[in-house]
Design brief:
By secondary structure, the protein is α/β, with parallel strands linked by helices. The radius of gyration is 24 Å and the shape is globular. The longest helix has 32 residues, at 5-36. The protein is built from eight helices and ten strands.
């Protein structure tokens, strides 16, 4: 049989088209799988507050395959001064981190909620402004979102974190409302001033046994580095188990973004405990085995629970 050039080119073209179609189909399938593992971030949702006399905004992350037939633990994340409810979604890879870690089963499915805290330090009547934000948060906001979304409304399924002003808010809520949260993760936390009750005055009022798990994480070139060191020392002296991480970094999103996977991993561990029936969270907290020295030469890194302090490796228990 003789093949002419035109017929041969036609056959080659059909072969290439078949290969291309197969490649496109594989690529589309991969994309569909990736999309199916992505959660949904809904921004700028509104709740009316009678306590504050105004509408308030919040944003929420729902995991992939979120369904009304299940209930989920919840992580509340608080922004810093001058920010808003979208800080965690605009300047951070939080949604991507959550998607990947949930898809790989490194952390359980969870809902993440970021409320707008304005500049009110997450407390009542800051600087006498007549705005009772803390009352709003606990009397209106939490009951609303935990009814609006399929959230388990118990202590062992609820955690709170925040950075800067939000770090203060998270710590304040973890102490003052210790029966509401299983874990507190405070980044670059502001600990006093600006019309607040200082955390070093709040901490001694509570027995260590009633408190949630606590992590303080702060850069070594932060506005609040010294304050966080001193607060960690105070907590240790009070017998309050906690984790204190200090590593290279400043008061910025480069530092905070690197914390997000650790926050998810930490609270995820506690949420898993809750799902296996562990309710008394305070008795299962991490021991404070790696509180950083305040003075002397210090060289530190952070690798999934491993600190290097003064050249010695310390593994948190």
């Amino acid at each position: 049989m003789k093949w002419n050039l035109t017929k041969l080119m036609s056959i080659c073209l059909l072969f290439l088209m078949a290969c291309t179609d197969g490649t496109d189909a594989m690529a589309q399938t991969a994309q569909n799988i990736a999309d199916s593992q992505k959660g949904t971030v809904m921004r700028d949702l509104t709740i009316h507050s009678d306590i504050l006399g105004r509408d308030m905004l919040y944003s929420v992350y729902l995991p992939a395959n979120y369904t009304e037939s299940k209930q989920y633990p919840v992580l509340y994340l608080l922004h810093g001064w001058g920010g808003n409810q979208n800080e965690w979604w605009v300047y951070d890879d939080l949604a991507d981190d959550a998607d990947k870690m949930i898809a790989s089963d490194e952390v359980p499915e969870m809902v993440i909620i970021t409320p707008d805290g304005q500049t009110w330090r997450y407390m009542d009547n800051n600087y006498g402004n007549g705005l009772y934000y803390e009352r709003y948060f606990f009397e209106e906001f939490l009951p609303y979102v935990e009814t609006r979304y399929r959230i388990r409304s118990n202590r062992s399924s609820r955690a709170v974190g925040g950075f800067s002003m939000g770090g203060y808010g998270a710590l304040r809520y973890g102490f003052v409302h210790h029966d509401m949260f299983c874990y507190v993760y405070a980044l670059s936390a502001m600990l006093d001033g600006n019309g607040t009750v200082p955390m070093n005055e709040i901490a001694p009022e509570y027995a260590p046994s009633v408190l949630p798990g606590i992590t303080l994480e702060c850069g070594d070139n932060d506005y609040f580095t010294t304050d966080n060191r001193e607060f960690s020392t105070q907590l240790a002296s009070l017998g309050i188990a906690h984790e204190h991480i200090e590593r290279p970094g400043s008061h910025d999103w480069d530092f905070w973004s690197a914390c997000s996977p650790k926050i998810l991993r930490k609270v995820g561990d506690f949420f898993r405990q809750a799902s296996t029936g562990i309710q008394n969270v305070s008795s299962h907290r991490h021991n404070a085995t790696a509180i950083y020295s305040i003075s002397g030469t210090r060289r530190d890194t952070m690798q999934r629970g491993i600190n290097i302090v003064n050249g010695k490796k310390i593994i948190k228990q």
